[in-house]
Amino acid sequence: MLIEKFNPLEDEMIQVLNEEGDIIRPEWMPEISDEEVLSLFRTMQKTRAIDSIALSLQRQGRMLTYAASLGQEAAQVGSGYALKKTDWAVPAFRELGMWLTKGWSVDKILQYWYGNEWGSHTGEDLRLLPISVPISSQFQHAVGIGMSIRLKGENDVVMAYTGDGGTSQGDFHEAMNFAGVYRTPNVFVIQNNQYAISVPVVIQTASKNLAMKALAYGMPGILVDGNDLFAVLAVSQQAVAYARETGPVLIEAYTYRMGAHTTSDDPTKYRTDDEVDPWKEKDPLLRVEKYLIKKNLLKQEEIEAMKEALEEEVMEAYRSIEHSSDTEIEEIFSYHYEKMTPQLQDQLDEYRNYLKGAASDGK
């Protein structure tokens, strides 16, 4: 098993599919059918379609601040596909591919970024926590779920995500330490996209890689090419199996944030085209596309047709929520607890009175 053999101190990176779409380590290739590969490729294309359309809508003033996943699709889809339906996923805010893989619907995702919290209502059967913007705070939640699974004698796994910048947060280390001590069934995924907003990873840590941080907490750590769908899937499957039976694992998915941190960011202020351009050749979608064409599983015209169909599907989902009603005032206060507390009721009454006063003043 790669998880047990890999030594992050040697700084080796697991890769199965190279940039030309060729399998270079067939012994590491996950067991996956052609139909599954096509399905995952479609999910990756859908991820990119949502990104493209959401960015355009935000620039038109029709959507709020948005965090794109451009360039990180393989890291998200490959890891998410390793989970069972009963397993938990605990995201940060840049896990679009995983959300789709886990089953969060396009219209709900867009509704969230549109500014309506009902988008976070994923349903009772979907074991997916809401988006967490405070960096690495969700790792604490993930370990808490993992601890509850151990205490109840269940057999589920919890996969949590953060970025390279998240490894500098106290919550990251507290969660890792707790998971290591109590052997919780957690898989921690670091999407190392090279930047924490404008801070490059080279001044984020003095470590040779981020996977080696696992060693201090008594768990395996493994470094994988985050732009390689098959490598991410293989490593994630083994990590999930290990977590289910033994204890926590840390995965570093080495990738690159091709776009801005969010729509409020301008990456040209801190990086150059000379840095970005080589990563375009490592595009995770392009890599799988070359593989599928070489295997005669798809033709270029079929890929273009797929893109057009997905873009229309995404726009149709957006049109269904664009003119939906805004959040009701009561909903801001009534979903913290099963029954609204007296303090929350007082806050709701105070806010209603404020709105009435503002309306009477013509504001």
Describe this structure as you would to a colleague:
- By secondary structure, the protein is an alpha/beta fold.
- It has two domains: 2-326, Thiamin diphosphate (ThDP)-binding fold, Pyr/PP domains (Rossmann fold, 3-Layer(aba) Sandwich); 328-363.
- 46% of the residues lie in helices and 9% in strands.
- The protein is built from 13 helices and seven strands.
- The chain has a five-stranded parallel beta sheet with strand order 1-2-3-7-6, sandwiched between helices. A two-stranded antiparallel ribbon has the order 4-5.
- Helix 3 (73-80) packs parallel to helix 4, helix 5 packs across helix 11 (300-322) and helix 6 packs parallel to helix 7 (170-182).
- The longest helix is centred in the first third of the chain and has 26 residues, at 34-59.
- The termini are far apart.
- The mean pLDDT is 95.
Pattern of helices and strands: HHHEHHHEHEEEEHEHHHHH
CATH class of the largest domain: Alpha Beta
The residue fraction in helices comes out at 40-55%
List the domain count as a whole number.
2
| Spatial gap, N to C terminus | 65 Å
Radius of gyration: 21 Å
What's the architecture of the largest domain, going by CATH?
3-Layer(aba) Sandwich
Q: Low-confidence segments, ≥5 residues, pLDDT <50?
A: none
Q: Which shape, going by the Cα principal axes?
A: globular
The number of E-state strands comes to: 7
Our count of helices gives 13
Largest sheet: 5 strands, parallel
Class per helix and strand makeup: alpha/beta
CATH superfamily of the largest domain: Thiamin diphosphate (ThDP)-binding fold, Pyr/PP domains
Determine the CATH topology of the largest domain. Rossmann fold
Query: Could you tell me the strand content as a percent range?
Result: 5-15%
